[in-house]
Amino acid sequence: MTEKPNLKPPDHVCGQTVLNKTLFEKTITVPCLVVKGVKISTVIPIVKKYLLKLENFKPVKTINEQEAEIFFNPELVNNWNDLSVEDQKSLQELSFNENNLVDRSHTLTYENYNVESILRAILPKNVEGSSSFTKIGHIVHLNLREHLIPYKDIIGEVLFDKVPGCRTVVNKVAIIDNTYRNFQMEVLKGDNDMHTKVKENKCTFEFDFSKVYWNSRLCTEHERIVNMVKSGDVLFDVFAGVGPFSIPIAKKGCLVYANDLNPESYKWLNHNSKINKIGNNLKTFNKDGREFILGVVKELLLEHLNKRNVFIVMNLPAMAVEFLNAFINLYKEEELKQIENPPIVIVYCFAKGEDYESIAKKLLFDSIGFDIGSKIIEIFRVRTVSSLKEMMRIVFKLDRDILSGLKTNLPHKRKHAHDDSISVKKCNDFDVTMGKNKKKTNSVFKVAGAKSLKLKAKAKAVKTELKQINIKNKSKILEVDKELVNLQEKLRNTAPQEKKEKSKSGSKLPSKINSNSDSNVNVEQLNAMQL
Q1: Is 37 assigned to a binding site?
Q2: Residue 405, marked binder
Q3: Could you give the dihedral angle defined by the CA atoms of residues 48, 52, 57 and 63, in that order, rounded to the nearest 10 degrees?
Q4: Is the pTM of this model over 0.85?
Q5: What DSSP state is assigned to residue 354?
Q6: Model confidence over 222-276: pLDDT tens digits?
Q7: 168 domain-assigned
Q8: CATH code for position 305
Q9: Residue 315 marked in a binding site
Q10: 97 and 158: one domain?
Q11: Domain co-membership, 244 together with 378
Q12: Domain boundaries, position 343
C-alpha cells in the first residue's frame, strides 16, 4: 500500500439538491490484520486505537474464537511501520509480523457516513455548513440560513435518516418576535407531529413544540440553576415556560411560584407538574411578567423574607431586563423590615458586542435606573448565540435600596435639569464642568489624567487660545452692534424723504436702478457685519 485512501464521500456528490444515495458508493483499499491461532481478546487492546470506525461497520470480523480479520483506518495505518514501536513489539510477542497485515478491498456506501461528512460533501465548497440542529424528543429543529434554503429538502432528508429517533425535521421560518416566544416552522421531512416528550434533570416534559418555547441547548444552564437552589428554598419563576426550572426545583422540595403569559405554556406547565407528581410545592399563574411581579411577588415576598432563601428567575433574555424596574419601590420603606437575607435575582439577557460583560451591566443599570454594581454577585456567559451575540446570566441581590426605591434619585446615567453639575466629555484631554461646581475650581478646564508637564502645557496653551478667541468675538460683537445702530439711524432719516417722493409720484414705483443700488449697499453692509 502506497497511497492512503480518502474516507470522505466522493467529490461528485457535491451540489445535490435531491438525495441520490447510490452516488456515495466508493471502493477503497483497507489494511487488515489477519488473526489466526491467537485469542482475539488479547489482540484488540493493542490495536484498538487503529480500528476503522465508520457508521454501520464492524472493524472486527470474527470467524471463530481464534480467527478474525481486524480492519485498520487507512488514514492512520498504511503499512506495518505506521504502528508504534511499542505496539509492534507487543504484536510480535503474540507471533504477529508484517506478513499478517494485508490489503482488503471495501466499498463505502451512504450508510457508512455520518451527518456532518454527508452535508459537508453535498453543499458547495463556497457555502458554509448547515446551521447546527437541536433534538427535542423525536423532532430535529433547524434554523437554516438564507443561502442554505435551496438545499433544505436534502438537508432534512439526511437528518431524518441519520439522527437516531428522529421522526420529524422542522426548519424555523421566522424569528421569535411574538408575545409567546414560539415561532413559525415548516416540516422538511417526516410526520407533522409537534407533540413531543423530553427528559431533563430527572424530570419528564411534554409539550407542543409549535406552540411553546423550548431550547435543548439550555439543558446545562437549567441544571446549574437547579443545583443552585437548595431544598426548602423559595423560587419565583417569572417566565416559567413549560417548567424547565420550576418542575425540577419543586421536585427537590422547594416552594415554587411559576408564571407564564402563554396559555399553552401554562397548560403544559400544569400537565408536567402532574406527570412528575410535584403536588403542592408548585403554584402556577398565567399572567404578564410585570403583573406577576407587582401582584404575586409583592404579596408573597415579605412572607418568606429572612425566613428562607428566595430566588427570582427571569429567563426571557430578549427583554427580561425591561421588567426589572417593576421591583423599584415595590414596597414603602416602612413596610420593609431589616433585610438580613435579600432575595437573589437571576436574570438573563443578550449582549450584542465584544465587551459582553460591560454590555450586560449597562442593560441592567439602564433598567434599574442607578448603578447596582455592589449588589451583583455574578455575571456569567451562558452560550454564544451568534457572532458578537452572547446569552448572559446576571445574578444580583434585590435589597432594600431597590425594593423601597431609596436610590432611584441617583441615576447612574441620565442627568437631569436639577443636577448641580453635568460632566460633558469634549476630548481626551479635558473635562468641561458646567453648573454651580465650576465656582469650586480655579479653572473651568480640568485636565483629566494629565500626568506629565507636557499635557499640562498643552492644556494651558489651549486655554490661552480660547481666551483670545473670546476677546476677538466680544470685539466683533461690539462692532456689529455699532453698525446696526448706524443702519437703523440711516433708515429713520431716509424714511420721511421717501414718503414725500411717493406722494408726489402717486403709485409710481422708484426706478429699478436706484432700487438695485440701495439693495447692493445694504447687502454689503450686512456682509461686513458677519462674524
Answers
A1: no
A2: no
A3: -60
A4: no
A5: S
A6: 999 999 999 999 999 999 999 999 999 999 999 999 999 999 999 999 999 999 9
A7: yes
A8: 3.40.50.150
A9: yes
A10: no
A11: yes
A12: 232-403
